[in-house]
Design goal:
With 151 residues, the chain is an alpha+beta fold. Helices cover 25% and strands 37% of the residues. It has a six-stranded antiparallel β-sheet with strand order 1-2-4-5-6-3. It starts with 10 loop residues before the first strand and ends with a helix.
Length: 151
Amino acid sequence: MTERDADGDGWIEGATHYLPLRVQYEDTDLSGAVYHANYLKFMERGRSDYVRLIAIDQTALAAGPEGVFFVVRHCAIAFLKPARLDDRLQVRTRFTGDSGARLNCTQSVWRGTENLARADITLACVGKDGRPKRLPAILRQAVADLLTDAE
């Protein structure tokens, strides 16, 4: 573990978040490859850790007066190569923009220089009643700052 990842949440360079992980036995299927649904779990960890590192507390947002949550509205994923037991992987996450109740990002899973999977994901912000809610101002500003810093 490096200094920049001492807490296990990964790190941010430019506008991209990097999350290292290792494939565990529980991540694999009968063939020994990572089960396809687990790439989505890896990506969820990447998004959650990214948001945490930009000082957005999802638990506080959910418990707060607006009571907002994030749900995946759309996911287009391409599985390019399999990962296997004990592989060291890196999940890369980059927010690409927001509008109203939506937040867009691109994510990919890498093994060294090999891109194993990539996805375009749209998140929606919803209230406790399940209806769309505008993204919280603190999140919109954090994403805008990241996109500006990366230019």
